[in-house]
Write a structure and sequence with these properties.
29% helix, 5 helices
């Protein structure tokens, strides 16, 4: 599955408290990169708020994968509502947990679902949302005599240099927009007379463009 060119996600941890008929809904949002990170964060929250009645959540990633849980609440009242709140802001690479402390009064299906949705909406609304762009990682190896040529095309196609090694042959690790990869490679190969080795990797990064 191809990855999206741009994504929106939150900058950092955020939380929001909502009270409804005695029940406390504490919503917590955290940026994550992998499912392992999301699961680890959930375990941390469960341990921190061990005395809560429910720990409902939703997490989703840029590749389209997601998971949510009602954690004992009536089906459809919690996890999907949190997931819908995430979709409202079109954010990804995020885990959102709503910790509920039951206040003694049952809310009913409709109001309960609204409380979970509203707590997640308000938490995300108070978060700093960033837009990020997809970059692929490539490696360049070349002779010192070609340094000027390589740097010219790195600058022309606005690559981000993440690592420079100067050994017998210089090596450079760069981040490049997928849309520029083909033209960059073909132009550099022609200009260097095929003396620059360009290695594609499986690695990628999302780089911040701006805050919304």
């Amino acid at each position: 599955m191809s990855l999206p060119q741009k994504i929106k996600t939150i900058k950092q941890y955020s939380e929001y408290k909502l009270k409804e008929k005695g029940s406390l809904f504490l919503c917590i949002c955290e940026p994550v990169q992998t499912e392992e990170e999301a699961i680890s964060f959930l375990a941390k929250i469960r341990k921190q708020y061990y005395d809560a009645t429910h720990h409902c959540y939703s997490y989703k990633f840029q590749n389209g994968s997601f998971k949510y849980s009602d954690d004992g609440e009536p089906s459809g009242t919690a996890g999907i509502r949190i997931y819908n709140a995430q979709n409202h802001f079109d954010v990804t690479n995020i885990v959102t947990v709503v910790v509920r402390y039951f206040g003694g009064t049952k809310l009913g299906i409709g109001p309960l679902g609204k409380a979970y949705y509203d707590s997640a909406i308000d938490c995300l609304n108070n978060s700093v949302i960033e837009q990020k762009e997809l970059f692929h990682k490539i490696e360049l190896s070349y002779d010192f005599a070609l340094s000027k040529t390589v740097h010219h095309f790195v600058s022309k196609f606005k690559l981000i240099i993440s690592k420079n090694d100067f050994d017998i042959r210089p090596k450079m690790v760069c981040l490049i927009r997928p849309s520029s990869e083909k033209d960059f490679s073909s132009e550099l190969i022609v200009a260097s007379q095929n003396k620059v080795v360009i290695t594609q990797t499986e690695e990628f990064s999302y780089i911040i463009l701006d805050s919304i």
